[in-house]
Each structure stands twice: as C-alpha cells, then as structure tokens.
What we know:
By secondary structure, this protein is an alpha/beta fold. The protein has helices at about 15-25, 55-60, 95-115, 155-170, 195-200, 215-225, 250-255, 275-280, and strands at about 5-10, 30-35, 40, 45-50, 80, 120-125, 175-180, 185, 210-215, 230-235. It has a single domain, classed as NAD(P)-binding Rossmann-like Domain (Rossmann fold), CATH 3.40.50.720. Helices cover about 30% and strands about 15% of the residues.
Amino acid sequence: MSTPMRVAVTGSAGKIGREAVRALKAAGHRVIGLDLRAATIDGVRTAAVDCTDFGAVLGALSGIDTMFGMAPVPQLPDAVVHLAGIPAPGLSDDARVFDVNTLSTYNVFSACARLGIRRIVWGSSETILGLPFNTPPAFLPIDETHPDLPNWSYAMAKFLGEQMADQVTRWHQTLSIASLRFSNVFDVTDYAQQPAAAANPHFRKFNAWGYVDARDAGEACRLAVEAAFAGHERMIIAAADNITGHSSAELAAAHFPQSPFKSRLEGDASLLSSARAGAVIGYQPRFSWRNVKA
Length: 294
C-alpha cells in the first residue's frame, strides 16, 4: 500500500462513491465525503457541498474544520475522487445534465489546481465511445484508441471533462488526472437484469454488452489514487466478461459484422478492454454476474 493519504470523495453517497469510500478506507486512507447532504456512511463523515458552486468546492477542498482531524489549521486533501453529478443520461433534461456534469468537473479541476492538490481521479464514461453504437464500433474489443464519438448530452459533458483534463494538466505539470471511463455500473440489485440480457442480447447491444461491478469501480478509484503516473490518463473500467454469458465473438459477428477484430476474443471476454487500466493502475476486475454475492 502507498503512504496513507487524505482523500476527498465527491458524490460519496452514490453507487460508485460508496464503494470508493469503502475501498480507500480499507486501504488505510483518511477519507471525507462531499455530497449534497451531510451524513455519516460506514463511519466516514460527509459534508454538504454542491459541486456546481465553485465557491463551495474551493471552500471545501481548502479545508473543513475537524474533517481530517483536530489540527488548528484545516488540512487540504492529498487527492480528490470526483464522482458527483448526474450519473446517467435521461435522469434530467439534457441541458441540466450537461450543465451539472460539465460545471462540477470544471470546478473540481480548477479548485485542485489553485490549491495545489496534485491528484484527481474522476468518473468519465463509456458513453464517450459511441453509444448506442448505431454506427458500429471502429474495431473490437474497444480500447482507449477508439475514436471519441459522444452522441448524448451526458456523453458530451464527459468528453469535455476529458478535454479539460488534457489542458489543466498541460497548465499544471505537477497535476495528474485519471479519467476512469466506467462501463454500466451494477450493484447487487442490478444483476436482476442479467437473465433478460442473456435471453435478448439485442437489447444490450447499445453498450457492447459491457458492465462493471460497483465494487470493482470503487477499487479502480483507490488504485488510481495510489498509482504513480504523470499528466492525464484515460482508462476504460469494465468487468472481465460480457453481461450475457454468450460468446463475445458470436455476439460481435451477429450485431457488428462490419467491425474488425483488433485482438482475439476468448469465450465471453468483455468487448470493452480494461488492459490500459491494468497497465497504468493495476486494475483487475474481480466481480462478475456469476459471483454477484461474492
């Protein structure tokens, strides 16, 4: 384990946020949550902060009394995991989804740069890659060299977040940012969808049958906080398999016959490659729909 750090997690009450907090705390880091409502979850305190308010973000990250201990001067976090925002397309009107997600990401990046917080991990998205794939993928399995083709306001906000990360790390060369392109995040209750996906694979074509367990997503956040890399890194975070259990090569041949294979597909291996995340931060997905209770 790396040296214990002070880590602030925005959106700490969300599906990934809860697991990121747990993973960081289990690794020995000192964690505070920042969310719309104050609370205590799993023994970790959460302060009420609206991440669309730059002043509130700057104030929170510059130190909150007693949150990292009882020092006379509030202590800055060493790293920020930014997961706050509207977590999926269709949960509000398009303009609000775009506004909230773009502004909150800018506010966190800008506040960290101004305060000298040198590590940011944030929740980007697979949607950048061309979902719902009405235009077939350029190749399979999809990796970070695939063209960015945001088709929704939600995806556009994530795309612009990554563009901001490129420029902020250019301006501030001691700052590093990990853009974690999460696949469709499943918690235990979401796995009830799996039999329907297996019976009707066409309905999951929209994201190439990808998913990731929330626990693996949280662990990816922890790994990215601890990893040593420079600048901005984009990484797909997905499960090792597809959600249907069917042969990935057969799914691809049936639904994306125009898409060439970039590498060999074995069994039901994911059509979203997490190899880059494995190389940069050591990410290895542990959970599958097959071991949902593990």
